[in-house]
Amino acid sequence: MFILYPQAALFPLGQLFATPGVLVEVTEVEISLALARHAMADWGDLDQEDIDENNRALKEGSRLLSAYHSSSRVKFWIITEWDRSVTTVLLPSEY
């Protein structure tokens, strides 16, 4: 998988994983672009409460969650663990 990793990343993504479902439903380019957005603290399609929680988590070292939609309207999540060792791309149904 080709990954764009921006120089402006605010945190490390660690090891990257993608679930089988998201690999079938979302293109690699869309996943890569979403990972770049996630690493720059663009949390995607979250409500303000979840955005505020992510911004706190970024400072305090908690888990980070972003939500995005593919061009075919498939919702997918990106979760980076609290220690920034692992980032997983998945469909909500695979959580």
UniProtKB/TrEMBL annotation:
Identification of the protein by name: Plasmid related protein
Organism from which the protein derives: Brevifollis gellanilyticus
